[in-house]
Design a protein that fits this description.
Number of helices: 12
CATH architecture: Alpha-Beta Barrel
CATH superfamily: Metal-dependent hydrolases
Strand order of the largest sheet: 1-4-5-6-7-8-9-10
CATH topology: TIM Barrel
């Protein structure tokens, strides 16, 4: 049964597991969404827009106060990584430079958190901006502007327009096909190593072979795969989970052989996976989520090792599936048999090292 908007917003109440375990939330967003943008999203005829629009409407404002409200639900979140959300772009100036506005905004939020006036969690201790690597030589100036705006917190970029599938119902109009293989994209990608920047990447599971090629071509550039490689279970992929899991696992095994790649464990609360827990009634418990997500999380840890895996909340997007405390309870259930060293790496150590945080 699919929940109504009000019903799936209700959080399942659970005791907090391992409340003292330090956490670095390796991936979250902050944003303000205008009514115009919401109306545009709700008018679009594709799975992604229809599914995500209630999340954006519920969280049309998700700033420091709202994120802190989630953080203060019992888990020991010590720091976080902001990942681009295409918000607060500049309203003026060259088109390529408008994304600098988001970095300026987030760095200000980070400075507020760092003051200690809002608690001792270092919110946005690392900043990942959104940059379009297909704009040609101008990208160097954009990267430098991002680095200047983000200062000591700026760590890397997440590529734009990468998510693509031939099924027009699955955000087909958002990305460009085979962008990771594009010569202009790759010419810009070379700059990341020179500037010491990492590359976060969100794409769909069928695109993973192209990411493998990119990682092998640029072995010195740190790549961070978002959302365990985003398995798809909607549109033309509905009802094909076992079949697609085999292909996903093969790609993950190959990608793990690229030692410049790390993976974020999470993002399975978004609509594209087609999981039963998404917007379900009643809301899934952490035990149910752990059982549903286990094959993907355990495969990644098995292949990459704890030293190249990090848990992420992907909030507020994943709030469509569960509350913040339930999400981290699910992750803790998934690692119940891990050693202390492995838990430290998975929940804080890997993110701290990969994003070079000063905690």
């Amino acid at each position: 049964m699919v929940a109504t908007h009000a019903q799936w917003c209700d959080a399942t109440i659970e005791p907090i597991l391992e409340p003292e375990l330090p956490i670095v939330d390796a991936h979250h967003h902050l944003w303000v969404v205008s009514e115009t943008d919401l109306a545009l999203m709700e008018s679009q005829d594709n799975i992604g827009a229809r599914a995500l629009s209630p999340v954006y409407r519920r969280h049309s404002r998700y700033l420091l106060d709202e994120y802190l409200s989630d953080l203060r639900t019992g888990h020991n979140v010590r720091a976080s990584i902001f990942v681009d959300a295409h918000t607060m772009y500049r309203s003026h100036g060259p088109e390529a430079m408008k994304s600098v506005g988001e970095v300026e905004f987030v760095n200000g939020i980070a400075a507020m958190a760092d003051s200690g006036m809002f608690g001792d969690t270092k919110v946005c201790a690392g900043i990942v901006g959104g940059v379009d690597l297909t704009i040609g030589p101008a990208v160097e100036e954009v990267l430098l502007a991002h680095m200047q705006a983000g200062g000591i917190r700026y760590r890397g970029i997440r590529g734009s327009r990468l998510v693509y599938d031939e099924d027009p119902n699955i955000l087909g109009a958002r990305g460009r096909p085979h962008l990771l293989l594009d010569p202009t994209f790759r010419a810009s990608f070379r700059l990341l190593q020179r500037f010491g920047l990492s590359f976060d990447v969100f794409l769909f599971e069928p695109q993973l072979p192209e990411l493998i090629d990119l990682a092998r071509t640029f072995p010195e550039t740190q790549i961070i795969l978002n959302h365990v490689g985003a398995p798809i279970g909607v549109g033309c992929y509905a009802g094909r989970r076992e079949e697609r899991f085999v292909d996903w696992r093969k790609s993950i095994e190959s990608l793990a052989g690229c030692h410049n790649v790390a993976v974020k464990l999470g993002g399975l609360g978004i609509p594209y996976g087609g999981f039963r827990s998404y917007k379900a009634i009643p809301t899934a418990t952490s035990a149910q989520l752990a059982a549903e997500w286990r094959p993907y999380i355990e495969t990644c840890i098995e292949q990459f090792g704890a030293e190249r895996c990090m848990f992420e909340s992907n909030f507020p997007v994943d709030s469509a599936t569960c509350s913040y405390p339930v999400l981290w309870n699910a992750f803790k259930r998934l690692t119940a048999g891990a050693s202390k060293a492995e838990k430290t790496a998975l929940f804080s150590g890997t993110a701290t090292r990969i994003y070079r945080l000063d905690l």
